[in-house]
């Protein structure tokens, strides 16, 4: 592909501003490719594709296109490239930063992978599964389980999110401490490029040193370089035993110390290590009668730990108990309980699962999906709490997340009983305080949710100019007309500066 200057305003032909020409030159050719089922132009029917399930992101487009397979997606993208029609790739529409929502000015069309939902094949000798981009994550998990395997990517939205969206945002989730993020679970991709050509990289190889690892360019790119249409994914042995524990700890510093001890003794059996402060449990229980405190008294911080592996649950639980006893003796832990049944384990998980919903019902909150080195988690939370309390008296700390990979959802909540609107107006200043601390500790302002539109204005402050330039040059190379998900991930100024 020849590098050309990125066009900042891709609607050069004005087709989207001329409904008659747009219908003749874009919609009718697309209709011939995808049929009536694959084209939605009714405003009401398009609405589920326009609105985010959280954070009030909303858009308006003249059409939503739902190709049934890769050939149709490529043909549609060819039409869009020829007519310079910008597109917004969309999977399950479960994102949290506005990356999958179109803008509200009829300046784009949505390309949805919802109809591309086939499991193409499974190779158990190679431990791989190949799927369309629109397959729901839970369907992949269930297919793997039926074959005696595990696909370990696990998210709260796994019943509705699609694998193409998971890969486009490099989803992390609850088991990244053991299995890594989505990036590490992909062996091959199929991608429709901005000009309509198809790159078939669906190779199930664990070793392939013949050139650049091109698939990694599209994982985490949020649909700005091309549209993922298929993926070959790694499968792993299905664990025979699982043990879940809910542990009390004095502080994040003590939690990190016990995690270090646990990793040395338990190794890769540690599947999940979730950290949450007391207020998370209290607010979750306040808004859901199904959430209950499993311990006899209150403690400042908690860990939800899950182990899995081969062998028996009795053996796994015995290994965990030895490390728990060592943690209690070292004062890294204060108390704890180990689930004795699947029902008890589910009750412990309801605390973690009820935390985001309880927070939503509590009032205005300031959501930060950040990561710092695990060694800096305690310092980050302490410094952020102190800085916000000084600036906004009454603000309530609210921190939880994936301790094992340093990804903390740091979501302070408004002062109790005060108007939510007044607190919501303070978001920019809260963001600046929190993100400056994250940057000072060598962290990232978005650990797993992506940049999208939510962090678009901030990313230029926290990434070095050379890094922004490299990202812009990749965009320039693959998408010189800026047709793919424009106005996401890259600050507009970065594209304007390109020679």
Automatic annotation (TrEMBL):
GO molecular function: catalytic activity; FAD binding
Flavoprotein found in the keyword field: yes
UniProt entry keywords in alphabetical sequence: FAD, Flavoprotein
Coiled coil: none
Record-linked Gene3D superfamilies: 3.30.465.10, 3.30.70.2190, 3.30.70.2740, Uridine Diphospho-n-acetylenolpyruvylglucosamine Reductase, domain 2 (3.30.43.10), Vanillyl-alcohol Oxidase, Chain A, domain 4 (1.10.45.10)
UniProt cross-references to SUPFAM superfamilies, sorted A to Z: FAD-binding/transporter-associated domain-like, FAD-linked oxidases, C-terminal domain
Protein name per its UniProtKB record: FAD-binding oxidoreductase
Organism: Roseomonas indoligenes
């Amino acid at each position: 592909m020849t590098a050309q200057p990125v066009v900042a305003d891709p609607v050069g032909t004005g087709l989207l501003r001329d409904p008659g020409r747009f219908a003749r030159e874009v919609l009718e050719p697309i209709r011939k490719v995808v049929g009536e089922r694959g084209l939605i132009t009714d405003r009401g029917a398009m609405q589920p594709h326009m609105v985010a399930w959280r954070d009030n992101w909303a858009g308006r487009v003249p059409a939503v296109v739902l190709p049934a397979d890769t050939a149709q997606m490529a043909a549609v993208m060819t039409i869009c490239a020829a007519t310079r029609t910008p597109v917004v790739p969309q999977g399950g529409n479960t994102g949290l930063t506005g990356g999958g929502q179109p803008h509200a000015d009829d300046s784009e069309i949505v390309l949805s992978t919802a109809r591309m939902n086939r499991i193409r094949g499974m190779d158990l000798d190679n431990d791989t599964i190949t799927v369309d981009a629109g397959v729901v994550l839970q369907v992949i998990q269930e297919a793997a389980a039926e074959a005696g395997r595990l696909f370990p990517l696990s998210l709260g939205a796994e019943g509705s999110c699609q694998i193409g969206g998971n890969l486009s945002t490099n989803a992390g989730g609850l088991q990244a401490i053991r299995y890594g993020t989505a990036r590490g679970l992909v062996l091959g991709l199929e991608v429709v490029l901005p000009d309509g050509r198809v790159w078939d990289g669906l190779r199930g190889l664990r070793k392939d040193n013949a050139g650049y690892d091109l698939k990694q360019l599209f994982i985490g790119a949020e649909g700005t370089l091309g549209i993922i249409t298929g993926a070959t994914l790694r499968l792993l042995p299905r664990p025979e035993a699982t043990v879940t524990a809910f542990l009390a700890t004095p502080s994040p510093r003590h939690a990190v110390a016990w995690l270090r001890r646990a990793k040395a003794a338990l190794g890769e059996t540690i599947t999940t290590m979730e950290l949450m402060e007391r207020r998370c449990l209290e607010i979750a229980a306040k808004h859901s009668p199904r959430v209950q405190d499993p311990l006899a008294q209150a403690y400042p911080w908690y860990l939800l730990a899950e182990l899995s592996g081969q062998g028996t649950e009795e053996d796994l639980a015995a290994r965990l108990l030895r490390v728990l006893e060592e943690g209690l003796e070292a004062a890294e832990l204060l108390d704890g309980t180990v689930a004795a049944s699947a029902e008890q384990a589910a009750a412990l998980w309801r605390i973690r699962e009820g935390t985001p919903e309880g927070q939503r019902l509590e009032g205005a909150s300031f959501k930060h999906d950040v990561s710092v080195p695990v060694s800096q988690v305690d310092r980050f939370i302490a410094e952020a709490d102190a800085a916000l309390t000084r600036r906004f008296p009454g603000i309530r700390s609210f921190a939880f997340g994936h301790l094992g990979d340093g990804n903390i959802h740091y979501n302070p909540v408004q002062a109790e009983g005060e108007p939510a609107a007044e607190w919501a107006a303070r978001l920019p200043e809260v963001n600046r305080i929190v993100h400056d601390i994250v940057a000072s500790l060598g962290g990232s302002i978005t650990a797993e949710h992506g940049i999208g539109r939510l962090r678009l204005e901030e990313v230029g402050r926290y990434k070095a100019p050379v890094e922004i330039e490299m990202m812009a040059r990749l965009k320039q190379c693959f998408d010189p007309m800026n047709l793919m998900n424009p106005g996401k991930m890259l600050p507009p100024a970065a594209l304007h500066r390109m020679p």
